[in-house]
């Protein structure tokens, strides 16, 4: 009987299910808080280090570049070396830069350590979903995955709010130390609670065969359009949030960093938007609801052109709801479009998604510097709608041929 129990995957009725779920949710919370913690601090870095807006935005985009490299490399390695090791190393690698950066007092060092941190951050997303699918019963996987993804949004929101608040009251160095302390606390919980893998099977395929399967999807036109959607959605969304602190510090708002940090609470709608989108799509169809999400995203973006702060806040909330609706359904469509190597297809979508983050920060900085908020918002507001029309035209052409 004991042996039989050992062969069963964990369900919501098992204590180990909740140990796994809580551990990965906390780890996800910290990793995504670490990733986006610098976003409200971009104006601070411009002032403290005497750098341009473009250079300051690299504190986010270089992290994303490191993350993309990590997703590919660590994803392959986790198939060969196991899951839990990379989850724990991801946390340690994310904590150390927060302790070192304030001691070095160099912007170049900050950029280098953020790049390294991005690579380390990738260990969690590269291994966690595979670990969940291996250890948790299919009937319970939905609960665990939903809590994990919700923690992504909560972590991203909390990281931005905490660093903005602490920096405004103390300093950005204290904010980094505070994140390191949270990380150490999360690491200890994961170290104690996260069970070792029981159903992990080491990949016997050669690296070349894995890479061939990974790149196979780039020859699928339908998937390329989906990957492009991931880039466009995130580029537009990140573009708004990256330069919002600069905009709200200027006249006529003249807000403090503390006040600006509260704007990131709009991300809370991401926790609602993703599951709501899945439920509504079950009734009306994925494409229709995703199209609606994209329109809502653009509408919210355009609302931020207002000179009224309450309307800007409403616009940010609307854009968050639209973005997380469109993003979650676009991610879902990846596995529908891929006829095999579905895991590789999902990884490629994540890569595309984070390329969009990088483009939405550094690549849009020259547009912000030249055209200000008006030029930036017109561009990022029109971008998703334009791409949606492009996808529709290409799909019609495919259907005819």
TrEMBL record:
Domain annotation Major facilitator superfamily (MFS) profile: ranges: 20-399
Membrane topology: Multi-pass membrane protein
Entry keyword Repeat: no
Subcellular location, record wording: Cell membrane
Keywords: Cell membrane, Membrane, Transmembrane, Transmembrane helix, Transport
Broad class of where this protein is predominantly found: membrane
Transmembrane segments: 16-38, 58-78, 85-104, 110-132, 141-162, 174-194, 223-244, 264-282, 289-305, 311-335, 347-367, 373-391
Name this protein carries in UniProt: MFS transporter
